[in-house]
Amino acid sequence: MKHTSILAVAICILLSTSANCLGNPMISRGTIPLAEEVTLTSIAGPLEYPWGIASLPDGSFLITQRSGQLRLISDGKLSPESIEFPTEILFLGQGGLLDVAVSPNFTQDQMVYFSYATGNMDSNRLAIGRAKWNHGKLENFEEIFKSAQSKNNGAHFGSRLAFLPDKTLLATIGDGGNPPQEFLDIFAREQAQNLQTHFGSIIRINGDGSIPDDNPFNNQADALPQIWSFGHRNPQGLVIDYKSGEIWSSEHGPAGGDELNLLKVGSNYGWPRVTFGRDYRDGSNISFKITDPEFSSPVLAWLDTHAPGGLTLYTGNAFPEWQGRLLSAGLVSEDLRIIQVKDGAAIGELRIPVGERVRDAEVSQDGSLYILTDGPKGRLLRVDPAKQ
C-alpha cells in the first residue's frame, strides 16, 4: 500500500465526515451525533486538577490531583482530608501526580501504582512508584521506574498505566515536547523514533519494576529494554479489553492530529514521520504522509481537535448498547466520546456533551459510569439514563 497523501485526506473529507474512506483510519470531523439522552449528576468536588481515577474492590475511588494529593471517595462522599503523596512531585505545566492503577493482585497485596513527574524545571522526567493501601494511608512507598533521560520543560509526560492479563504493567511516555523544544540538538519530538530514549514510547515492566524477559527489544543493543511500542507523541489514554485481548491507546497530536491506536507489541506508530497534525508554529504540515507501510496506522483520526485524555472500556449495564465500546475523554471537545469498534477497526462515534474539560472516565465496581472533569475545580459526575 502506497502512503496516503494530504490531498487524499482532503478528498476523503469532502466525501465523508466520518466514514472509513481511506480504508484505515476512520476520519472523525464535523458534527458528531449525540448519544441517547443521559443525566449527569455531580457526585464530588471541587477537586484540584484531578488526573487519574481508580476503583477499589470495596467500591470506593482513588483520585489523583496533579498538585500532589490523593483523594478518596467512599460511599459516594469525598473525604474532607486529602492524602499527601509520599514523595516529592513536580507540579509544572502538564506534570504532577498523574495516573493511578490498582494492582491486579490487590486483594492479596493491597498495592496501588502511580505515575508522576519528578525533578525540576531544568531537569525532569516521568517516574512510576507503588505503595501499600492501608485504611486510607499509603505505606512502604517505592519508586520502581524513572525515564532514562530528563527534559527541561513541563510538557508531554504521557503517563497512563494499565495492567496486561499477565500482570505486567504498561505505561505511556510522551515525546519530550513541541518545537522549539530540543533534545540532543534536534527537535525533541524526533526522539519518538529513537529506541535509546523512553520519549514517545509505551513501556512494559513487571510489578516490581524489573524487565520482562519477553520484551521486544530486550536483546537489541541500541534499544532500551523497557520499550514495548514507540513512535508515539503524547499518549494519555490506555485501556485493555480483557475479553478480546485488544490494547487501545489514544494520544494527543498537534493541531488536527489526535489518534486512537490499536497497540501491537514492538510496533512503530510513526510519530513524527506520519501524522495528520500540523505544526503549531505556522500551521504547516509536519509530514506529507498520514499512513505508510513502515508504520502502524491509527484506527481513528480526529481532524477536529478532541484532545483525548483517559480511555475506558464500557462494561456497565445501564447502557447495554454501549457494551464493549471505548470511552474517550475530551479535554478540548469537552465531551465523552463513545467509540464503536469491531475486529480492530473503529466503525462509529457518539458524544456526551459535558461542557467542561473531561479528563477521564471510570466504570465502578457496581457498573455505574463516572466522568472526571479537569481544572482547579474539577468534579466527579455520574452518568445515568435520562428519566422518561
Brief rundown of the structure:
The chain is mainly β and 388 residues long. It has helices spanning 6-15, 106-109, and strands at 4-5, 26-28, 38-47, 50-55, 61-65, 69-74, 77-78, 83-84, 97-102, 111-120, 123-134, 137-146, 161-163, 169-173, 182-183, 186-187, 201-205, 227-230, 234-240, 247-252, 258-262, 289-291, 300-302, 308-313, 326-330, 335-342, 345-353, 358-363, 369-373, 378-385.
Provide a descriptive summary of the structure in words.
The protein has 388 residues and is mostly beta strands. The chain has one domain (4-385): TolB, C-terminal domain (Neuraminidase), CATH 2.120.10. Helix content is 4%, strand content 43%. It is built from two helices and 30 strands. The protein has helices at 6-15, 106-109; strands at residues 4-5, 26-28, 38-47, 50-55, 61-65, 69-74, 77-78, 83-84, 97-102, 111-120, 123-134, 137-146, 161-163, 169-173, 182-183, 186-187, 201-205, 227-230, 234-240, 247-252, 258-262, 289-291, 300-302, 308-313, 326-330, 335-342, 345-353, 358-363, 369-373, 378-385. The protein has a five-stranded mixed β-sheet with strand order 2-23-21-20-19, with no helix packed on it. Strands 4, 5, 6, 7 and 8 form a five-stranded antiparallel β-sheet that branches. The longest helix has 10 residues, at 6-15. The protein is globular. It starts with a strand and ends with a strand.
